[in-house]
Amino acid sequence: MAGKFEVYQDASGKYRFRLKAGNGEVVATGQAYTSLSGAKDGCAAVQRAAAGASVVEVSD
């Protein structure tokens, strides 16, 4: 099963998204948005950025 974005309204009335893996585990969460469309735009931004993203190992 493919992952999915869930968009929801939090207790303070802001909109957020979470990305769930196919097994239902939350693998990413978004910031608070004032509008539903803002949260959906956030999902789209993550999709665009992840498509060509590389994995880079860093040290502290």
List the helices and strands and how they pair.
Elements: E1 4-9, E2 15-20, E3 26-29, H1 36-51
Antiparallel strand pairs: 1-2, 2-3
Question: What do these coordinates show?
Answer:
It is built from one helix and three strands; from the N terminus they run E-E-E-H. The chain has 60 residues and is α+β, with helices and mostly antiparallel strands.
Tell me roughly what share of residues is in helical segments. Answer: 25-40%
> What fraction strand?
25-35%
Count of helices? 1
Biggest sheet details: 3 strands, antiparallel
Instruction: Using the alpha-carbon principal axes, give the shape.
Output: globular
Number of E-state strands: 3
- What ranges have pLDDT less than 50 throughout 5 or more consecutive residues? none
Radius of gyration: 13 Å
Labels describing this entry:
3 strands; alpha+beta; about 60 residues
Q: How would you sum up this structure in a few lines?
A:
The protein has 60 residues and is an alpha+beta fold. Helices cover 27% and strands 27% of the residues. The chain is built from one helix and three strands.
